[in-house]
């Protein structure tokens, strides 16, 4: 057993040594560029990198501006209600909308939301059969 282990260890060492020797022999056969060629080729690669970066930057700026214009145009074409801001002020409403007024308050780290129904809407708290009316209209027997 010992002799086979020793022979495999010696064989592995000689194989690894042989690999490095052959690698260095191949590296001696390589035609390396001169100093001036290396500098010139490096400058060409760096130049192309800067040009590509500039082109990508210009394209990114153009697409970003185009996206902003598109979003602004879409906001003007399709009227929307403005969502409530974080300052606790009520949201502006579209005059043709039947949506209730929403107020969001995020001061002090706690968020609170209050909803004010529009005048003339049904108020279930004032109806005599508020529980029966809301249950019959919203009941779902499959719950």
Describe this structure in words.
The chain has 143 residues and is mostly helical. The protein has helices at residues 2-29, 35-77, 130-138; strands at residues 87-90, 101-105, 112-116. Strands 1-2-3 form a three-stranded antiparallel sheet, with no helix packed on it.
Task: Based on the model shown, name its key terms.
143 residues; mainly alpha; 2 domains; three-stranded antiparallel sheet; elongated
Brief characterization of the structure:
The protein has 143 residues and is mainly α. It has helices spanning 2-29, 35-77, 130-138; strands at residues 87-90, 101-105, 112-116. It contains 3 helices and 3 strands, in the order ααβββα.
Topology, please?
Blueprint: H1 2-29, H2 35-77, E1 87-90, E2 101-105, E3 112-116, H3 130-138
Antiparallel strand pairs: 1-2, 2-3
- The helix tally amounts to 3
Strand content: 5-15%
Order of helices and strands: HHEEEH
Total number of distinct structural domains? 2
SSE class: mainly alpha
Low-confidence stretches: 133-137
Please report the total strand number as a whole number.
3
**What is the percent of helical residues?**
55-70%
Rg is: 38 Å
Please list the strands of the largest sheet in the order they lie side by side: 1-2-3
Distance between the termini: 76 Å
Mean pLDDT: 74
Main beta sheet: strand number and arrangement?
3 strands, antiparallel
Shape: elongated
């Amino acid at each position: 057993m010992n002799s086979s282990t020793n022979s495999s260890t010696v064989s592995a060492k000689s194989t690894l040594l042989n690999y490095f020797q052959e690698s260095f022999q191949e590296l001696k056969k390589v035609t390396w560029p001169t100093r001036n060629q290396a500098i010139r080729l490096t400058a060409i690669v760096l130049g192309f990198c800067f040009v590509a970066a500039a082109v990508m930057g210009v394209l990114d700026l153009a697409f970003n501006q185009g996206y902003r214009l598109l979003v602004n145009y879409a906001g003007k074409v399709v009227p929307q209600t403005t969502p409530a801001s974080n300052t606790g002020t009520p949201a502006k409403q579209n005059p043709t909308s039947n949506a209730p007024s929403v107020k969001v308050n995020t001061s002090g780290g706690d968020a609170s939301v209050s909803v004010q129904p529009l005048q003339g809407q049904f108020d279930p708290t004032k109806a005599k059969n508020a529980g029966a009316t809301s249950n019959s209209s919203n009941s779902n027997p499959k719950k």
